[in-house]
Amino acid sequence: MIYFAYDIAMDERELHRSGIAPGAVIAGSGWLANRRLVFSGEGGRTPVAVPSYGDRVFGVLYFVSAPVEIEALKTLRSPLPRRVTKVRTLPHNRIVFAVTFEAAPDTLVPEGPAKPAYRDRMIEAARRFEFPEDYIARLASIPSPDGFAHTASEREEP
């Protein structure tokens, strides 16, 4: 199976360290068309791709082959439905079909603040995979529970 991760699982160490999918191998990166990323749930640790015409959500493609790892991914992302969707690859804009977990088109997802450490790890991965600067800026602009949008480098004391 090809799995598309758009949260902190973009960092393969997260999948390996947590024991979710230690055999997962990065296959590349890409983006979902007509989706945007929102944070929902308690504490701002649940990024969800929701339908949004004209927007894009960037992420990482993984090969995951062990059935137990596939089941672990389903459990991790529950209650979001598993969907097979078209992902455009970077840098060649080819279409691949991948499994991802995202909000269904008719589901209302309340948007909230992002936990700063979680959001910063996503920004770090986005930079490593060379996602577009406007997408990275969008991630950085998501407010934190304290009401401010800032990155780790802005919070450091001189």
Topology:
Layout (H helix, E strand, L loop, with lengths): L1 E4 L6 H6 L7 E16 L5 E18 L3 H11 L4 E9 L4 E7 L14 H13 L4 H9 L10 H4 L3
Antiparallel strand pairs: 1-3, 2-3, 2-4, 4-5
Helix pairs in contact: 3-4
Structural summary, described in words:
By secondary structure, the chain is an alpha+beta fold. The protein has a single domain (2-155), classed as Gamma-glutamyl cyclotransferase-like (Hypothetical upf0131 protein ytfp). It is built from five helices and five strands, in the order βαββαββααα. It has a five-stranded antiparallel beta sheet, with no helix packed on it. Strand 4 and strand 5 form a beta hairpin. The chain starts with a strand and ends with a helix.
What's the total count of β strands?
5
Shape type: globular
The average pLDDT is 84
Main structural class: alpha+beta
What is the CATH superfamily? Gamma-glutamyl cyclotransferase-like
Strand content: 25-35%
Radius of gyration: 15 Å
> What sequence of helices (H) and strands (E) makes up the elements?
EHEEHEEHHH
